[in-house]
Amino acid sequence: MNRVKGGCFLRQAVLRLGFLGVALLFGGSALGSPGTYPFRSLTPWVVDLIRIDHGFAPQLDWSDPNAPDPQALRDAAERRPAYTTEGLVESENILLHYDVTDEEQAALAAMIEDNGLLDVVWDGIVGPRVSGGLAWPAPDSDDGNGGDSRYDIYIDNLLPGLYGVTYADQASGPYQYSAYTVIGDWMDEGETSVTMAHEFSHGCQYGWDAFEDGWWFESPAIWIEDIIFDDVDDYLLWIYDSWRHPELPLDASQMAYPHGIFVRWMSETFGNDIVRQIWDRAAENANPTSIRSCRDVVNEQGGPLDWAGTLHGYHKALVDVSRFEEGDQYTKYKLGLAGSMAEYPGTVSGSVEYTAGNIVELEVLGNQDAVVTATLEGSGLVASLMLGNETEWVDYPFELQPDGVLMGVTAGGLGQTFDRAYVVITNPAIQGSIDYTLDVSVDGWEGCDQQRVPMTSSWAMSLFATLGVAGLFRALRRRR
């Protein structure tokens, strides 16, 4: 099921009109069966629309046939949910609304109350650091809309697959808004828990800086799910594209959810408060400055890692996932490559977008250890040669050569000691792309003609014993 989280500002067009309303919202296009959506989240579109309405250039492609209708988004923000018979679950800071005549809503409300989720979410996100909270600023007051000054969460009959929505309620500052949240009644306990954390964090963000970049709304919201509810691991469903597309910059619109893993990398490197510090910096003015704020705040942390080192460390961790605290859960993700060398000496040329990484695979063409020498031409880049096996990875950073132009590295052990190798190239700039040329040579595989790994006799005999003649023949054909 293609599930949707986060769509902020979205109201009657989806919540009350059902599938027909969804079709109308998306320009009248047919969206397939209920539960099938053209986007995982509408939040970036809503944030983009808020910026557009305040004179900023759009960050998204509103001419896309699947783009939501702007006026429908604006109209959807006019009314809160209303129930024939309203029930309430109350905590000190959050008010949960639901329809007592709806069995699913009533059951979900009871689960939320029994597990104290309203307090868990508030205390985890807004609570002070000394008690384990993130100390984010509370959502701005809505001046009593929804009943009183507490933050409002509504349970409603959202289409299956749409987790919840949080939208701006009314202006509370020059670029701040109060907000409220609507969650679907179709979710189980784990999904409900992380959705409440995800959506409530959007309420805080609207009170911080409603004009900020769309990716910086969603990536921290994905990260916060696992911070507040570590055992649910729903975030694993959304981060896989960070492995498949390391070549995309941090603020690429299609990477707003996947780059939650980059936010996690920063928090694992510097502590959870780094996210709040970046939001505070970005909110100092109305202009969207999320990437610049990330760079500046990271550079101010001190210690051995600056922005370039942090970003490059993240790209290396995509290769060696054991560098993440929950890396054992990321081994299933397939790594997207910018190139692959199968002959030596070899050359790969490319271009790296700002904040992005290119990963080039060096195929192993011999089973005896060889020495790898690589040079990289590309001013402003950071690069490393990574050699690994089943149990470890070793980094060899590229260093500036005497000519002052090329970066280079030499390392041994590829073949027997290390049976896999990658060159990881990072562009730490916050705008623009950098072209590069990578040259690699290998000393020690001459007997293999430096083109393909030959099958050793032990390898062939083992495969023969397992597969028989026919199976071995098919395997040999596949290896050509």
Fold and architecture overview:
There is one protein chain. This protein has 2 domains: 12-259, no CATH class; 339-448, Jelly Rolls (Sandwich). Helices cover 33% and strands 21% of the residues. The chain is built from 14 helices and 15 strands. It has helices spanning 12-15, 18-25, 43-53, 70-76, 103-114, 117-125, 189-209, 214-228, 241-244, 260-270, 273-282, 290-299, 307-319, 457-479; strands at residues 86-90, 94-99, 151-156, 164-171, 177-184, 339-341, 346-353, 357-362, 370-377, 382-388, 393-397, 399-400, 406-414, 420-426, 433-443. The strands form 3 sheets. Strands 1-2-3-5-4 form a 5-stranded mixed β-sheet, with helices on one face. It has a 5-stranded mixed β-sheet with strand order 6-8-14-10-11. A 5-stranded antiparallel β-sheet has the order 7-15-9-13-12, with no helix packed on it. Helix 3 crosses helix 8, helix 7 (189-209) crosses helix 8 and helix 8 (214-228) packs across helix 10. It is elongated, with a radius of gyration of 26 Å.
Blueprint of the fold:
Elements (H helix, E strand, L loop, with lengths): L11 H4 L2 H8 L17 H11 L16 H7 L9 E5 L3 E6 L3 H12 L2 H9 L25 E6 L7 E8 L5 E8 L4 H21 L4 H15 L12 H4 L15 H11 L2 H10 L7 H10 L7 H13 L19 E3 L4 E8 L3 E6 L7 E8 L4 E7 L4 E5 L1 E2 L5 E9 L5 E7 L6 E11 L13 H23 L1
Parallel strand pairs: 2-3, 3-5, 6-8
Antiparallel strand pairs: 1-2, 4-5, 7-15, 8-14, 9-13, 9-15, 10-11, 10-14, 12-13
Helix pairs in contact: 3-8, 6-7, 7-8, 8-10, 11-12
